[in-house]
Amino acid sequence: METLEARMRDGVRLVLDRFDPVGPSLTASVILLHGLSSNAQLWWPVARLLSEQGVCSYTVDQRGHGRSGGAGSPMGIAESADDLLTVVKSISPSEPLAVVGQSWGASVALHYGAVAADKPEVRPYVVGLVDGGFQAMGRAFPSREDALKELRPAEIDGRPIEELDAFFRRRYEDWDPEILLAARAGFHVDSAGLAYRRLAVSDHMVILSDLLDYEPHIDAGRLRSKLLLIPALAGSPEADEAKTEAAGRLLAEAPNQGWLRPIMGDHDLHAQYPERIAEIIFESLSA
């Protein structure tokens, strides 16, 4: 793994990691985008598995997240997709490109695919959405105020890191221990051992407010890429059916169609089942 930096148009520095292909190359590249208040490290296991399949893989700490700068700057879906355009130009892949995002990162990936549709030099061959970006999120709540109140993250800044570590052990029980380290990477720890979010709650809420206005069906209709949809199913028949149907409707909007691959599991499917997610991404690149 090689850690790189890219400078955005407004001077903000983003950090990304490159996983070079091991063995015969598929002549394909993939950029993996994390969700809101997450970080690139949750994608590292998938990136390594793809590199073993011959895929050059990149994970990105998006603006305001992880090791990247940009706290307090504009960081909605449009700004993040513009950042991704700068990243793609900086790495200038010569092979077919896939952009895959999870949760909020899925919306960024979808918008990027729409923006890049008429730019062959940066247009992705595949746009992948992992449990996100399937439907207009703002319509799932009675009002905007209800959504912002319900989805506001807990105020946990200043807690001892031992408390967070214990929470992560419960949250990610039976998962790869590497995921515990990835979850911790979303925080910085001061000299007193107290943990603070790398993405401030105020910035989280700015991104969330922007996400509530996002209309994915508009962008899906603009795509020239194949669309890969991976919903996480929770075992609730009604909810799972509704989510799968929403993903199917979005897929029907995409001119070049693609694949719908539901998986029973956690919202963080990429962290819970990296082997399965890597396999599905590889299959879409190989198609």
What would your notes on this structure say?
The protein has a single domain (2-139, 214-286), classed as Rossmann fold (3-Layer(aba) Sandwich). It has helices at residues 44-52, 77-91, 104-115, 144-151, 161-171, 177-184, 201-212, 216-222, 237-253, 269-272, 274-286, and strands at 2-7, 13-19, 29-33, 56-61, 97-102, 126-130, 159-160, 187-189, 194-197, 226-230, 232-233, 258-260, 263-264. The strands form three sheets. It has an eight-stranded mixed sheet with strand order 1-2-4-3-5-6-10-12, sandwiched between helices. It is globular and about 50 Å long. The protein is of the alpha/beta class and 287 residues long.
Condensed summary:
The chain is an alpha/beta fold.
Low-pLDDT stretches are: none
Strands of the largest sheet, in order across it?
Answer: 1-2-4-3-5-6-10-12
Q: How many individual domains?
A: 1
| pLDDT averaged over residues | 96
Second CATH tier, the architecture:
3-Layer(aba) Sandwich
Work out the helicity level: 40-55%
Overall form? globular
Strand content: 15-25%
CA-CA gap between termini = 26 Å
Given the structure, what is the number of helices? 11
The gyration radius over C-alpha positions equals 18 Å
The CATH homologous superfamily is called Alpha/Beta hydrolase fold, catalytic domain
Structural class call reads alpha/beta
Largest sheet: 8 strands, mixed
